[in-house]
Amino acid sequence: MIKTNAARLLDAAGIHYELIPYAYTEEDLSAQHVAAELGEDIDQVFKTLVLRGDRTGCFVCVIPGDFEVDLKVAARISGNKSCEMLHLRELLPTTGYIRGGCSPVGMKRPFPTYIHESALLYDYIYISAGQRGLQFKIAPQDLIDYTGAEIYPV
């Protein structure tokens, strides 16, 4: 298995994780599909969403796989009046990642990151390892510490 840049960054920081491969198709890049492939509860599979605020610019929300981002909450927690999802065509040039392979670890530049509070309910969660078909199994506190993320409630 080839290590992603995100994995090399965690290695350099001494963060423990496991790389977990899974089968994917272009037609279904959903977190529900990832959870089914991993045989894990959807509540432990988190997705990484990149948003743009009207005041602060880009920021990242890491939320459970079966959640939808609440734009009003996202704006409030990030210090914005409003926000929107980053357009798909902007994802790669902004983050270095493509849809279905976006990780909160190793973006082209660090963005403020907000992780849903439910992550702390688990010993480990799954997040993208920076490419489609590969997940990190990582302790949520390690992810929070590495990314400098803030925890946010619903």
Poorly predicted sequence stretches spanning 5 or more consecutive residues? none
What is the level-2 CATH architecture name?
Answer: Alpha-Beta Complex
Q: Give a short account of the largest sheet.
A: 5 strands, mixed
Helical percentage: 25-40%
Number of structural domains: 1
So how many helices?
Answer: 5
Verbal overview:
This protein is α/β, with parallel strands linked by helices and 154 residues long. The protein has a single domain, classed as Alpha-Beta Complex (YbaK protein). Helices cover 26% and strands 28% of the residues. It is built from 5 helices and 8 strands. The chain has a 5-stranded mixed beta sheet. A 3-stranded antiparallel beta sheet has the order 1-7-6. A hairpin with a 2-residue loop joins strand 6 and strand 7.
Name the descriptors.
154 residues; YbaK protein; five-stranded mixed β-sheet; globular; 5 helices; alpha/beta; 8 strands; single chain
Q: Mind sketching the topology for me?
A:
Layout: H1 5-13, E1 17-21, H2 31-38, E2 46-53, E3 57-64, H3 71-77, E4 83-85, H4 88-95, E5 113-116, E6 125-131, E7 134-138, H5 140-147, E8 150-152
Parallel strand pairs: 3-5, 5-8
Antiparallel strand pairs: 1-7, 2-3, 2-4, 6-7
The gist of it:
With 154 residues, this protein is α/β, with parallel strands linked by helices.
